[in-house]
Design goal:
CATH topology: Tetracycline Repressor, domain 2
Shape: rod-shaped
Structural class: mainly alpha
CATH class: Mainly Alpha
Order of helices and strands: HHHH
Largest sheet: none
Number of domains: 1
Length: 84
């Protein structure tokens, strides 16, 4: 459930901005009542912190993926160069 909350919250934060998202918005998008939602995460700032942490990790993950692709391309180029 926490991952679902994080995914939906992230989506809403990007769509309408953090200041505009309410607990009701998140609960409604999840198809649950606000009473079910609130105990899952103690405070809204905890939710923001988790979402921001996941956003901050994205450039590192993308950078690592690009580096891996670059390494693979370089290795392929070297192998092909040696064959010719």
């Amino acid at each position: 459930m926490k991952n679902n909350i994080l995914n939906i919250s992230s989506q809403l934060f990007l769509e309408i901005g953090f200041k505009n998202v309410t607990m009701d918005d998140i609960a409604e998008k999840m198809g649950i009542s606000k009473k079910q939602f609130i105990p899952t995460l103690k405070i809204n700032m905890n939710l923001l912190k988790k979402v921001l942490n996941s956003f901050l990790k994205m450039p590192v993950m993308i950078s690592n993926e690009l580096k891996n692709q670059q390494d693979t391309l370089l290795k392929s180029y070297i192998v092909l160069s040696l064959k010719f």
